[in-house]
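Q: My labmate handed me this sequence with no annotations at all. I'd like to see what the chain might look like in three dimensions before we decide whether it's worth expressing. Could you predict it?
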Amino acid sequence: MAQSDDVVIIDSEYSQRQEVLDNLPVGTTVIEIKGISNPWKSIREYLEQNRSKLVVHLFANTNYNAVKLGGKTYDMNAVDQEFEFSMLEGLYQGSYLQLLVYDCNLGSNPDGLALLKEISEMSYFNIAVPTNCNSIFGADLKFDHTTMNQPTHNSIFQ
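A: Here is what I predict for the chain of 158 residues:
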């Protein structure tokens, strides 16, 4: 059973979308991001209405230095221009929201880690990502890099 403070954000074009949905614990809240308006605005509006959600599990396609979400590619330049990150900062209430990025590529290189740090600084999310993994579904998946050195939650699949 998923914790009540967890929410899964999954991009509708995520390559492992169905496998993720098939393996989530019963009762997990899932928000699917489609190529609609601003995906970060959708996330912010959901979190504003659901203040008990403290852990966001993000499933989106990535490469070594970008995240694709809602039909938009967020590289360093796009992140620097995304005003919704500063709006997300307004959700900070004494504890950082945790954003767990389920990806084995982004956290394995300096460019990906720099991108996550930039998103973190702009949004006030404590972003965690694995730096060494073969599968996001593995029992050994560890979110061993954090942008704010805060404790992290385990994988939603554990």
